[in-house]
Amino acid sequence: MRKESKNLYLHADGDSFFVACEISMHPELRGHPVIVGGDRGIAVAMSMEAKKLGVTRGMPVFQIKKFFPEVVILSHHFDLYQDIADKMYLILLSYFAKVEIYSIDECFALVEPSIVKYFGGEKKLLVELKKEIEKTLQVTYSFGLARTKTLAKQASKLEKPNGSVILISKEDEEGALRKTSIEDVWGIGRQTAPALVRLGIKTAYDFVNYPDVKIIKNFSKPLLVLKKELAGEQIMEVENDSDPRDQKSIQATSTFHPASSDTKIIWREMAERAEDGCKNARVINLVSNKVSFFVKTSEYKYYFDEVKLTEYTADPGSVLDAIEPKFLRLLPKKARIRSTGVILHNLKRQEEVPLDLFGKQKKALKNLVVEEVADKIRKKYGEDTIKRASSLKRKETN
Ligand SMILES: [Mg+2]
């Protein structure tokens, strides 16, 4: 039996991602053979229907036109793909504290036991997450949930498209490893795979059962890490940005219960997100001059807006003052809101912010010092010792 207190790892992988993004904008193409790559002269991504016809990745467009005239050929729209990927990241962040962007259509997330418990089990958590993604983004992802990152990555491949594979029991893990041929193991290169096959290692299962000493003798160290991860030994972590000061944006999102249509409650939540985001920026001396914010309804509809700040800051008061007029207009009538989020963009290191002639920027940064002192007091004496006037005010009017 698995101990309840163990973290799990989630891997999400977009299904025919570029094509799926295009179809989300052109639903009339759903069910048709579609490829993306018209601008490159080759098929870069194919819909399931195109794959079934026999279109393969890298096939020249002139050939596709000749042999498969029914295929719809589209060009790339990278802004659209990035936009959907960004929204996916936000959705994952509203569930999990640690999310790693691995590629435009792949993410890892750390799944803590408390979140599994909250949703009433691994299966229910994935069902809820999938429902939200499909409804919000109109594209599907395949999921793998397992004891390690490597197992999660293998698991997401097993039931494509729109799959969700949960590997927790030893038997399920073993079954998955037996189904995975060695060249399909994440991190095993084209040169390494044949070398392993020569040693009689044909599947991930064979690999896991091969003696460590022989791997150490014949291969590099990363291969041993891979083996241990496949055997369920957690070594690789979900990684955020390497240098936190290089990040370009900071998000603070949260889901609250029960969902509410009470403006005051929603504003209080928003104010707290602004405080969280600003605090996380101040801790590493980052400031922002553009803030976006959103509310999400209980029907998974997103309402986004953004504001430009007059000065670079990480002061929640200034951020909330800028958001407030637009916030009321953003709020859909009568909708029940279940989560709010604030994102600080254009992050700059405080010491790199250009100062203006009138000293406004200097003053804004100086005001931050007061907030930083307040952060220290909060840290020492507890979160509730000092609350921003802005969120406090809203609380009192409740
Ligand atoms: Mg993919």
3D structure, described in words:
With 398 residues, this protein is α+β, with helices and mostly antiparallel strands. The protein has three domains: 168 residues, 2-Layer Sandwich (Alpha-Beta Plaits); 60 residues, Orthogonal Bundle (DNA polymerase, domain 1), CATH 1.10.150; 152 residues, 2-Layer Sandwich (Dna Ligase, domain 1), CATH 3.30.1490.100. Helix content is 44%, strand content 20%. The protein has 16 helices and 13 strands. The strands form three sheets. A five-stranded mixed sheet has the order 5-6-1-7-8. Helix 1 crosses helix 4 and helix 13 runs antiparallel to helix 14. The protein is globular and about 70 Å long. The C terminus is likely disordered.
Summarize the structure.
With 398 residues, this protein is of the alpha+beta class. 44% of the residues lie in helices and 20% in strands. It has 16 helices and 13 strands.
- Helix share, percent: 40-55%
Q: CATH H-level name of the largest domain... which superfamily?
A: Reverse transcriptase/Diguanylate cyclase domain
One letter per element, helices H and strands E, the order comes to EHEEHHEHEEHHEHEHHHHHEHEEHEEHH
**Number of helical segments with 4 or more residues:** 16
Using only C-alpha atoms, the radius of gyration works out to: 24 Å
- The overall number of domains is 3
Give me the oligomer status.
single chain
Distance between the first and last residues' Cα: 47 Å
Small molecules held by this entry:
magnesium ion
User: Low-confidence parts, pLDDT < 50 over ≥5 residues?
Assistant: 394-398
Query: In CATH's first tier, which class of the largest domain applies?
Result: Alpha Beta
Shape: globular
Report on the biggest sheet. Answer: 5 strands, mixed
CATH topological fold name of the largest domain:
Alpha-Beta Plaits
The appropriate CATH architecture of the largest domain is 2-Layer Sandwich
The percentage of residues in β strands lies in 15-25%
Number of strands: 13
